[in-house]
Predict the structure.
Amino acid sequence: MAEIVPFHDRDGFIWMDGQLVPWREANIHILTHALHYGSAVFEGERAYGGEIFKLTEHSQRLVDSAHILEFELPQSVAEIDQACRETIAANKLTDCYVRPIAWRGSEQMGVSAQKTRIHLAIAAWDWGSYFPMEERLKGIRIGLAKYRRPDPATAPTKAKAAGLYMICTVEKHRAERAGLADALMLDYRGRIAECTGANIFLVKDGVIHTPDPDCFLDGITRRTVIALAKKRGYEVRERAILPDELATFSECFITGTAAEVTPVSAIGDFTFKPGQISEALLGDYMSLVQPDKKLAAE
């Protein structure tokens, strides 16, 4: 097993509050508000061939997420875009993962945080496929989560907020202990929602179905794949999907910046066979983000 290199002890640079800082010096205080109260928002981005895919959409979502948590970033969307580009250039990366994060600082400790300074940092590192390609093509196995995505009346579900991922980590760990790749979460009403870090699509009779994202993120990759599907002439229905319907679908795949497009072979006791639609959209997506490394999917 390869040795794990901890993220705090690496070479390179992290963009932090307007300047590139040596990786090991990009630190925060233990009494930072975000660490105690979850007052942080972030993005997950991928660069292919030195270009960050959908960069401005990610930067805009970061700004929007901060607004939902009632803080303003000091940087504009254009400035965040440029800082992301500077970060991957400083680390001499071309194909990599990019993580911008904004948070409330340590000037005030307690639930109130009006006096805290708002920080922004951007890190980038080499990161291959979230799921190995061989595993992706045969379909991953996922379980059924116990925790549910919350009611929008109880949490800022339209923000990519750090605190909303606590239950995702719990469910991801539970799935991995069972030898599975991920877990499918229901929403507060008992409807199918998403996986721990990816949106889900299901196929029946040549039609693609996906949950209406009214209480979880309408992912940037999700929207991209919907556009690719419609370009191919597939019908896409965004609607409420109940767990009992899983037995009626023939194909399933998940989408996300990390997961890209990944076919699913099983959700609990329900099985699927990665077929023409899953393979076509996987190929279309990889051709879009890596035009020089096309994956055949005819």
